[in-house]
Backbone:
């Protein structure tokens, strides 16, 4: 069988789909991964054949309509969620031309799309084949579908559809302990962290003299907006440089060079979080879903500064469960950040709750266990 996995415009969307895509290929099936041009390096990095489908910069989908005219980005929670579906739908339209050109030569038997990859149901409906919705993080994103459906009204009408078709299978990686009671029926799958790797130095997997270890990262926020991401990291370094604590800053090398110049002696650079996380006592980050899941897999408490409606929602789920604290990045004073970090480091209840979610994840079926469900479609 031939499977087409469709990611989006950030490396996280590629890494989220990679474990199941690799499992399908290892079971003997033909697998391709389509994604925006800017993340083709990440697709190649996980060893999958990559199909570039859009050269449009990610920010253009967010800030411009289909004609290229600027649009105002809503700030409210509900409006932000709905609007996210709108701009992901614009991305789907931009991807369709190259997707159709590819599938004319290699028609898939099953299409697997990431959480907000609306090109997947459009393509599947056109060919009359099954499609799978694959969550790439633990955030319930179905609230975005209304915005996508409105944006795609013409494309859906062309396919004689009055709405977005339901997936034939939903693969969810959200740990049961924080999965919303209203979440759609799904096959649950264990989260397997994937990232760009590099040769390991001992300090990446071994703590320094037993000191508490904090990992600070801004994830894809740095690559999407280098100035904003760098400023966030610099502010956090000032607040988290605590006596008797080892602080590591996981960031792209170009950003890390500036941080090392500003804070002599700090250890900053590209660090594979899947390797680093098990040695950490606290992960401080921007609210990215893949970062949060990678920390949870290792049972590490988190201090989250969420950006955007989905990040706020995901962070709140961890706060409600007792595995994290969240602060408004626009309002958190350095002293507040320091106080929250010390609370997370020294109060055992956070690690206990994070450990429960780690065991939740470990008990779920691994990606190879779901291959049969995909081929049965």
Residues:
């Amino acid at each position: 069988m031939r499977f087409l996995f469709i990611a989006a415009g950030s490396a996280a969307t590629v890494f989220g789909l990679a474990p199941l895509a690799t499992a399908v290929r290892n079971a003997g099936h033909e697998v391709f991964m389509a994604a925006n041009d800017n993340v083709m390096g990440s697709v190649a990095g996980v060893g999958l054949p990559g199909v570039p489908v859009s050269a449009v910069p990610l920010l253009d989908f967010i800030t411009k309509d289909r004609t290229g005219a600027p649009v105002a980005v809503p700030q409210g929670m509900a409006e932000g969620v709905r609007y996210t579906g709108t701009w992901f739908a614009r991305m789907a339209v931009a991807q369709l031309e190259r997707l159709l050109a590819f599938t004319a030569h290699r028609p898939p038997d099953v299409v697997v799309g990431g959480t907000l990859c609306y090109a997947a149901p459009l393509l599947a409906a056109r060919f009359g084949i099954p499609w799978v919705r694959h969550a790439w993080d633990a955030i319930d994103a179905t609230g975005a579908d209304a915005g996508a459906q409105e944006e795609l009204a013409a494309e859906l009408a062309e396919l004689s559809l009055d709405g977005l078709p339901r997936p034939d299978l939903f693969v969810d990686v959200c740990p049961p302990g924080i999965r919303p009671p209203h979440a759609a029926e799904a096959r649950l799958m264990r989260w397997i962290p994937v990232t760009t790797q590099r040769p390991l130095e001992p300090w990446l997997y071994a703590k320094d003299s037993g000191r508490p270890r904090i990992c600070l990262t801004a994830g894809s926020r740095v690559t999407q907006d280098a100035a904003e991401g760098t400023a966030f990291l610099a502010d956090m370094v000032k607040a988290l440089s605590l006596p008797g604590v080892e602080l590591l800053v996981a960031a792209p090398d170009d950003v890390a060079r500036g941080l090392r110049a500003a804070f002599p002696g700090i250890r900053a650079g590209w660090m594979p979080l899947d390797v680093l996380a098990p040695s950490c006592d606290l992960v401080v980050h921007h609210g990215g879903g893949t970062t949060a899941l990678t920390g949870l897999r290792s049972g590490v408490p988190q201090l989250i500064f969420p950006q955007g409606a989905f990040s706020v929602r995901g962070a709140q789920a961890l706060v409600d469960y007792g595995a994290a604290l969240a602060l408004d990045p626009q309002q958190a004073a350095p002293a507040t950040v320091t106080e929250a970090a010390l609370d997370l480091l020294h109060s055992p209840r956070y690690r206990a709750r994070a450990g429960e979610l780690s065991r939740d994840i470990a008990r779920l079926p691994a990606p190879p266990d779901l291959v049969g469900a995909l081929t049965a479609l």
